[in-house]
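User: Need the bound-state model for pyridoxal-5'-phosphate:
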Amino acid sequence: MSLNTWAEVSLNHIRENLLKIRQSLPSSVKLMAVVKANGYGHGDLETVRMAEIAGADYLAVAHLEEALRLRANDITLPILILTPINPEDVQLALVYDLMLTVASAAWLKEMRKYKPLSPAKKLKLHIKMDTGLGRIGVKTKEEWEELVPLIREADIVIDGFYTHFATAGNADRAFLELQTKRFTEMMNWSYASCLSVNHYHCAGSAAALRFPSLAMDMVRIGAAMYGFYPQQLLPSLKLKPAFSLHSRLIHVKKLNKGEWLGYDNSYCAEADEWIGTVPIGYADGWSQRMQNTELLVGGKRAPVIGKICMDQLMVRLPGPCEIGTAVTLIGSQGSEEITFDELAAHIGGVAQEVSTSITERVARNYTNDTCKEEAGAKWGNRNVQSIYKKAVM
Ligand SMILES: *Cc1c(COP(=O)(O)O)cnc(C)c1O
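Assistant: Bound-state model below.
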């Protein structure tokens, strides 16, 4: 871990974003905060604590291990695991009161080998339907009919019935409408089977914010909580990114015209230039796909030059700078800003790909001005000092 490179996470922004999202939805709709992948790279426990304060009803994670980590840290909200777990781990779900995603009859049959029928030990399930994303889920009526007797058992609670959209953030709505129509048909299969289902849900961030009519009983909010949403489609909704990334110059030198720099001589100075070295590299999640991006030094944009190394990168400075000068890789300095959208466009990805790529080696430094009391000592500000103490212990 380099103390000169850190991410700053604004817990206030996460809370404000959630409150705005909550306000935009009918009050009966339950809010499931999606905190998979370490809270999209922001820190799972800190995000969960803010989500609880902002009134989240449910949590969702991708994997069993992520859910167990929350339970081990005394998180008591209901948790849905979005990816099917190994059937042999079903007892862990019972012991830690975790809700599981079911996407096939085969999973249920296999699971039965590890959970004898016992009405006293109820397993809570969310049935996943594939309406067009093509990832996981029940697709056909035949598959559904094979599933029904297996979920009708006395020790199964069907807490949810859900699907996930492929194009909810796109301007063209045609495929979203097709998926919605398929889901409506599938909900009719469920009604016809007279099963008792607690929640029907289909909307992630983009669908929930753009089309509140798709909120149904519950929305699954990930991206928007962290300030990632299709801004061009929702110009009036001002959600704020919570994550910024910073470092400092650890070395400054002059490169003479014609001198090479970087692995494979990937850069050649066109004139006499000032070059800074920044202690972040691909092992921190700043991958070589970030080559030819810019960062901020002294309130100005400066190009990253040469190949990004494992632990360091080089930047062409506007002029001589002191060692220790602050560098911003994501976020603002003065009136300049490097946005997630800009970086995502550069790598041909999405904002959450950038935030989830930042590895554990980069300390997360939490700012939390307005809800210190609520957040309490356990979740209070962590500054670099406390992180440093932890690192050297
Ligand atoms: C990740 C995920 C979400 C959250 O989506 P966002 O667009 O980040 O809000 C919702 N549902 C499922 C099934 C997911 O995998």
